[in-house]
Amino acid sequence: MSSTDVPTDGPVWAIVLAAGSGRRYGPHPKQYEFLGSERVVDRSLAIARAAADHVVVVLGPGEEAEGARLVESGAADVAVEGGEERSDSVRAALGVIDEDAAVIVVHDAARPLATAELHQAVVAVVHGGADAAIPAVPVTDTIKRVTHDEHGDLVASATLDRSELVAVQTPQAFRADALRAAHAHGGSATDDAALVEQAGGRVVIVAGEATNIKITGPMDLAVAIVLLGTLG
Ligand code: CTP
Ligand code: MG
Fold first, then answer.
1. Would I find Nucleotidyltransferase among this entry's keywords (predicted)?
2. Confidence class of residue 62 from pLDDT cuts 50, 70 and 90?
3. What's the Rg (C-alpha) of the chain?
């Protein structure tokens, strides 16, 4: 993959993904839950806005009125409808990003506590020459590979070397051409860096933030509210 011939000093675009259905969270869409006085999606958009020239918000089907409000308020420059899988939602956003975009940051709305400094840090590493920059934190649990045995029981088949593992977060920043190339032939992954890795791109890790949790299950919103109180 080309990595140094296209300048990265042009416009920075952020994609904020809020088109998921939050099946693990519960009955309410997690992106519209309140964190203090603002919703999860509003906080994620405001922080992405602080580090990008343009912001695309990706929303679920039937959320056109919500998208119009977010654009009207200036929280986003454009709203698009997402797709079935997270990667489909990213591709929907790529379809509305200007050709002259130099760096594209992909962020999960479900991580409302990522700081503007983290957004700026990943962009800076791409400006420095990486195809992609992603935040990660050390893994503290012991991680095992599991399988089912002949009795149907869940059993451990291997214990992975924790020193070689990290837990990856968003925001993830990409050279725009690297991200577009990685998505050019479809594909699905739980993050975009996986597609860039598969395409042979150089993905640089930056220090993530322990407080940058993803709201996944019902407990996570409560944790995020407590963390917000300590972060200020
Ligand atoms: N997302 C998206 N489009 C999809 C799936 C996910 O924009 N088709 C977004 C979610 O809104 C979320 C982020 O990607 O901000 C990370 O996904 P995840 O935490 O898995 O959220 P959901 O897919 O909504 O939740 P679940 O997997 O529990 O259904
Ligand atoms: Mg999901």
1. yes
2. very high
3. 18
Domain count, the chain: 1
Cis peptide bond N-terminal to 171, omega within 30? yes
Residue 79 phi, psi dihedral angles, 5° rounding? -120, 135
Ligand 1 centroid distance, CA of 60 (Å): 10
Q: DSSP 3-state assignment of 205?
A: strand
Six-digit token string for 53: 């020239």
Query: By three-state DSSP, how is residue 57 classified?
Result: strand
Would 7 be classed as within a structural domain?
no
Distance 90 CA to ligand 2 centre (A): 13
d(CA 52, CA 174): 13
- Residue 123 lies inside a defined structural domain of this protein: yes
Residue 122 contacts residue 133 (beta carbons within 8 Å) = yes
Q: What digits encode the pLDDT tens for the residues 75-96?
A: 999 999 999 999 999 999 999 9
Q: Is the CB of 212 inside a 6 Å radius of any atom of ligand 1?
A: no
Instruction: Note the pLDDT of residue 71.
Output: 98
* CATH code: domain of residue 152: 3.90.550.10
Please determine, for residue 187, whether its predicted confidence score (pLDDT) is greater than 60.
Answer: yes
Q: Kindly report the average pLDDT of the chain as a whole number.
A: 95
Domain that holds residue 56: 12-231
Amino acid code (one letter) for 136: A
